Fold each of these.
Amino acid sequence: MTSDTKSVSSSASSRRDGTPSEPNGSIVPSSSSGDFMSFFKGILSFTGDLSSLTCPSFLLNGISLLEYGAHWSDYPHVLAEITKATDSAERMKLVARWFVSTLYGSYNKRVAESNTGEKKPFNPILGEQFLASWNDKDFGETKFVCEQVSHHPPVSAIYFENAQAGIYGSGHFSQKSKFKGTTMKVVQEGRVTLRMKNTDEIYCLTLPNLNICSILTGKPFLEMSDTTYIRSSKGYSAEFQWQTKAWFYGEYHKFTGKIFTDAAQTYVPGAEQDVLFALKGKWV
């Protein structure tokens, strides 16, 4: 990410392994096409949290939803480097870079590696935990824990820290969904809060909404949509617009955004802003 041109580009703008954004294969075995069509008819009127959606076995991922949360720490060095910033504006830029770095693992990695399609994870039970850690020779150990803290409605909570760098964060999230056309819209509720020991500054991040596309073809994948933001307690904000691909033109997984001064007590979309940096790129 650069600042000399007042433009910030995503470090995740190129695909990790050269695979297409939309999977080529199908997750539906030919012998199970009838079961899939029955499932598809059932979700046409589905509204609610995804944990209550019963899926055929071939649509299940085989891991717990809690494991998805570990992608907040996919790049521990990018998280730790936030503490090296010398002022609030530079720190916001590094927080935005870290946020974008978490998206590929969270929402596209499974499709890119399997080239078949997104699958539904197992529902965690109340009190279930997932623990992980990463060691870096320069930045030390980053620890992560995710726990299912509510069953109805289903809510997951996360905590991660790098004690050597002096940075830690926590958050909670849940999902609600509804079906529109051939796409399932997933509204992600919750937020993540980031803190550092070398400053009293606090960052609050909201979560992007998701579109589960191409369900009818049997090769679903995720797009992000709508607007999210990062707010700093020192009067800076970052705003992201997640762009979905149109039917007949455009590209997948693009975003635009900006970092600006924001002294308001609450986030107000469209309010007058002093823009410091522009953001654009692709998050895969």
Amino acid sequence: MESSLRCKKLIRGCGLELTEGRLPTLHTSTALFRFKLGEAIRGDAEILELLGNFVEELLSDHDNISLYLDPVVLATGEDNSDNSPSSSGLAHFGSGQSESLVRLMLGVDALQPRIISILLEKFPEFIGNERAQGSAGTTQPSVKILRQLRWLDYVIDSAGLTEKLIETLGYVTPEMQSEIISALPDIISDSDSTGVSVVLAGMMDETPALMLPILEALG
């Protein structure tokens, strides 16, 4: 409990407010939040470990996991009379597309490997259980987890991430196989594309139903 409060205080000080049962609120720019958080944990192995554990704890709550996978709320034009983390020069962040809490964390170099590891561990927990639990029109948590990894500016361990996703293709449902295959071009680096192409070509021979997403991914 004490470590969670410490992490919340640190994150709030960097500009992101966490409220139980609600989407987080970002009181600053995405770039400034990531910079402040990166500076706050630089060279501090203890707080880095605590933050990783904190994010893992948040994502362990299956009922509320979407709060941390959906875009955060962007604060707009508030004053500082309530000691909010925004500053006088930072207002009107209500325009544009915001990132999720997880995406914000993925943009911090020191945190990225741990956050990716957590996402890949959580991913299989939802596969096979979502059809009965989800309501019509609701994006499944597993798909939301996968989307966190798309279009990142960079991936520190791209080869490791690619290997894990290819491994995941071996045990997920056909629907999720299609989702992963479609996402691969937006996740993997150019250096990993040749090996992935070989794997996908083999899958196309074994599973004709996946031919369309595979051809699109290879294209």
